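Bit of a strange request maybe. I'm writing a small parser for structure token strings and I need a real example to test against, not something I typed by hand. Could someone generate the tokens for this chain?
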Amino acid sequence: MIRDMMDSNEYQLWEGKPEKVTYIIGNPVMYIVALVWGAFDFAFIGLMFGVGGGLPMGFGLFMIPFFLLHLMPVWIAVGGPIYRAINWNYIQYVLTDKRIYIQSGIIGRDINVVEFMAISEPEVNVGLIEKLRGCGTIRLTPSMYWDGDGNRRTSNKGALLHIEDPYNVYKRIKQMSVDIKSDIHYPNALRPEENPGYNTKYDPKS
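Reply from user aminoacidic:
Good idea to test on real output. This should exercise your parser:
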């Protein structure tokens, strides 16, 4: 799918996908939340139905859908790894000499294209599971903003999740971004053979 979208003069430099175990596990905090949430709900359900031999019929019929909905964090924790195990097969990351392609989607193929000009202050994040599995996440366009409640939030237009050798891939992406931005703002045809501004040292006193 991605190769069908590439230009005729576009060349692939790197290809990868998330480390499978790390991606399927997801955020381990979710399992802790689901465990505590489920323990509280099931204890409450047992307490209610254990008092007085059960609940009135009408009240019981109301509580069943209520707790099915209230146990949503548990269903997410159980169904999340199943979904990610299937979705992993369709995730693909491709780095070319012009842009970055991010493919995902079970039903249809969603492809997010991130141009090197759009990459701003990329960063590498390595969590606990990623550290143990030898992988990391590269966020291509992390941007900070403040929401209506005064909390600082992060938004990302693209991220390469749980990839192997993240630091070398990061250096390659960063260099490509710098090269392409430099070429657009200062094309080779306009560059002098000698550039007095290159490799200079900043001196605030001069």
